[in-house]
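## Example pair
The file below holds two records. Each record gives the amino-acid sequence first, followed by its structure token line.
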Amino acid sequence: MNMTEDLTSVDTHFAFGKNWESYSSLIDEAAIESSTQALVRLLGRSSLEGATFLDIGCGSGLHSLAALRLGAARLLSVDLDPDSVATTRAVLDRFMPGRSFVVEQRSVFDLDPAASGRFDVVYSWGVLHHTGDMTTALRRAVGMVAPGGVFLFALYRKTWLCPFWTIEKRWYTKASPAAQRRGQVAYRTVYRGLTAASALVRGRARRADSARERGMDFDHDVHDWLGGYPYESILPDDVEKLMTSWGLRHEASFLCAPTRGRTHGLLGSGCDEYRYRKEDG
């Protein structure tokens, strides 16, 4: 990405918020339960009672909702996109009326523990690789974790075809709605063909299942994937190096592929999920 661009401006990013606004009408109890169970798995426990929770890149608000369902005592949800902010507020008001929460339009690059405090749980699923400066975004997120707290996040696995997908996403973000629809049809056609030969696409073939596991929707997930610009990716070993250099200890990983190396990327990249704990003190 052109580093002269303002990474805190929504104009430099794909319109994620419009996609999540559309998706939010599909949220039901089944989706909430799936999202809640996915959060429990990544969190490593079944309750957030008394915990403070920061959701960076709240999107539709589904995962913020899951945090409240698990008993989070204080919730701050932030997103760069004003449509995501409005959608998250609407979803939380709809499913958790009367509960206290804060939803703000804010970039991860503007997060400041001096202003907002630090949190027991900092959560960012599939977001920080879309910021235009993933390493800085990760460091900012880590800075919001309280001593002894956990950082839960998911990032795209690096693939051999990431340069192609970067070009595709840049095109798709600027394309007309009609051209985007043609792109979606083309992707689904290739997806169906390749998933029929599942041995070829082991790393990406579970996109539909992965979406359902987190309470998401396949068609909205495809639009999100094709348009997800800015775009970066990273290998698990490089995540480990960054986290340990910032004083965090690995607790759990849920990897999208059997190995820790690059995947082929024929259908794109899956997300590796991580739980790291910040050392006390």
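Second record, same layout:
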Amino acid sequence: MTKNNPSAKQLTNGDFTESMKPFSLFGEWLEDATRSEINDPNAFSLSTVDADGLPNVRVLLLKDFDEQGFVFYTNYESAKGQELLFAGKAAMCFHWKSLRRQIRLRGAVTPVDPAEADAYYQSRPRESRIGAWASQQSRPLEARAQLEKAVVDFTAKFEGGDVPRPAHWSGFRLVPQSIEFWHDRPFRLHDRVVFSRESVSEEWTKQRLYP
């Protein structure tokens, strides 16, 4: 796999070129993962902190990315939604076991534009859109039957019509300040390269780290 990926070879050999940019390199690694991972190559761990400073982590799916940032969607009234709105920053970690690669990102988090959220929401299966209405995410559920009843109720409510996006369901965009690429190497002498910047208006700097 490494032989067919120029960027991976550059990481391994320490041969960085000025043309190597973190977003394009991320895209290449994600494409490799799409071919090699059995399930959900776009899965990542999202780390947040609550109002008491206690960390939280869970797995989500990346829905879009470009040089403006990395986009995912959730219920704003859920634990992670509240933590993201409170702190305004988070961290992501992608790990592709089949490739022995990892990418970590940290940065500020902002809500996506409502029109962007609407467009993605309408691309979801109808059942998933109804589920966004039925699930009071992260809150106590006495019995699964209660959730199933809510699904039935909202299915009936929207029968024969559109399922609009709930106001409490939308997306976030993480704008990275740092992106670290990790590539497994023999004897735990791994390659670690971090791209960092002080602000989105500044150029990225590259630094190799000890494994």
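Notes on the second record: The beta strands are 43-49, 55-61, 64-66, 69-75, 89-96, 101-111, 169-183, 191-196, 205-209. The first strand starts at residue 43 and ends at 49.
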